[in-house]
């Protein structure tokens, strides 16, 4: 029996793509030569919702899947992870996207997207939005990839307008070149969303797309000047720049033996949502988010590998990777 969804308990709502990801079981092997794969739920906003749920938060996802077995797999898997599927719709024509990962090298895998002519989430329109949930949820997270095509672009912008810049409205700058005609087109449609969020998260390249510079401090300055209250610039091996109007610091990375670099940023995102809800300061929040990302980087999968709070505590207290708790 399906348990009725109580909107008042929702804590995290993400909006964006969902997919089925296939991970090679042979590492450092060209994709053409891989013999076997492992299947998992993917898509950055989907992974963030799973990561938040794994940390004990009540999470839901706005997305669309195909009317096919992979769509059913995503729905069933999200329920198993504790992510509510009330806002997942089914597209009658488009197939659920599939993504193949090539672990060469594991630190920076290549992704091969099969989502032609488009991903079904891009068919979400303004009329499809769960307005009450978007307006009331404590943490709303959207992916900049949603601005790549209509009608999804208009829906994503309208959702940000509905938020009226209430805390916490998080924009993941998430730039995927294959979704766009050019960097200039991406800048045209991603940049305006900076004016509608309270938290912005991205790496140097994504900051350049959004605010015109890849220099971390300058990028943070530009986001803060446009009304963002928390700007987070990921610096790779150099750590994470965390900037507010009152303070600025670089949080050092946590180094682990990388098995697969995919999903680390999404684990970071889920832990960021957890820290925002807990009311922790920016430094503590990002410190724990770094640990969450490090744990997933040391594992093969994305959604299946998202850590619990106990696993994050274990890494921070001992410096050792925790044994993965079965999903």
Q: CATH topology, anyone? A: UDP-N-acetylmuramoyl-L-alanine:D-glutamate ligase
- On the 0 to 100 scale, the average pLDDT is 94
Class by alpha and beta content: alpha/beta
| Cα shape | globular
Relative helix content: 25-40%
Order of helices and strands: EEEHEHEEEEHEHEHEHHEEEHHH
The residue ranges in which pLDDT falls below 50 over 5 or more consecutive positions are none
Distance between the termini: 22 Å
- Going by CATH, the architecture would be 3-Layer(aba) Sandwich
Biggest sheet, open or closed, and with what strands and sense? 10 strands, mixed
CATH superfamily: Ribokinase
Q: How many separate helices?
A: 10
Our count of domains comes out at: 1
What is the number of beta strands?
Answer: 14
Question: What are its keywords?
Answer:
single chain, 327 residues, alpha/beta, UDP-N-acetylmuramoyl-L-alanine:D-glutamate ligase, ten-stranded mixed sheet, four-stranded mixed sheet, 10 helices, 14 strands, globular
Task: Describe the structure in your own words.
The structure is a single chain. By secondary structure, the protein is an alpha/beta fold. The protein has one domain: UDP-N-acetylmuramoyl-L-alanine:D-glutamate ligase (3-Layer(aba) Sandwich), CATH 3.40.1190. Helix content is 33%, strand content 20%. Strand 4, helix 2 and strand 5 form a beta-alpha-beta unit. Helix 5 packs across helix 6 and helix 8 runs antiparallel to helix 9. The protein is globular, with a radius of gyration of 18 Å.
């Amino acid at each position: 029996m399906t348990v009725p969804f109580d909107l008042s308990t929702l804590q995290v709502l993400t909006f964006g793509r969902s997919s089925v990801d296939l991970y090679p079981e042979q590492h450092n092997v060209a994709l053409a030569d891989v013999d076997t794969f492992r299947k998992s739920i993917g898509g950055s906003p989907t992974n963030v919702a799973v990561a938040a749920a794994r940390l004990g938060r009540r999470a839901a996802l706005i997305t669309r899947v195909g009317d096919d077995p992979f769509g059913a797999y995503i729905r069933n898997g999200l329920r198993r992870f504790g992510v509510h599927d009330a806002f997942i719709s089914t597209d009658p024509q488009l197939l659920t996207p599939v993504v193949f990962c090539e672990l060469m090298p594991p630190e920076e895998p290549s992704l091969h997207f099969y989502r032609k002519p488009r991903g079904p989430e891009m068919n979400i329109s303004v009329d499809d939005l769960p307005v009450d949930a978007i307006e009331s949820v404590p943490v709303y997270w959207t992916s900049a990839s949603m601005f790549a095509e209509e009608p999804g672009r208009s829906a994503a912008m309208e959702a940000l307008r509905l938020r009226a810049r209430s805390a916490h409205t998080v924009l993941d700058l998430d730039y995927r070149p294959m979704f766009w005609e050019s960097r200039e087109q991406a800048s045209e449609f991603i940049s305006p969303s900076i004016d509608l969020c309270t938290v912005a998260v991205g790496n140097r390249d994504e900051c350049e797309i959004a605010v015109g510079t890849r220099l971390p401090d300058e990028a943070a300055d530009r986001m803060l000047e446009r009304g963002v209250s928390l700007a987070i610039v990921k610096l790779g091996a150099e750590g994470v720049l965390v900037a507010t109007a009152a303070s600025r610091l670089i949080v050092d990375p946590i180094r682990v033996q990388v098995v697969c670099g995919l999903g680390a940023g999404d684990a970071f995102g889920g832990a960021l949502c957890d820290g925002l809800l807990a009311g922790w300061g920016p430094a503590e929040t990002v410190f724990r988010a770094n640990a969450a990302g490090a744990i997933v980087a040391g594992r093969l999968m994305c959604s299946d590998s998202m850590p619990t709070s106990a696993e994050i505590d274990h890494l921070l207290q001992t410096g050792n990777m925790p044994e993965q708790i079965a999903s």
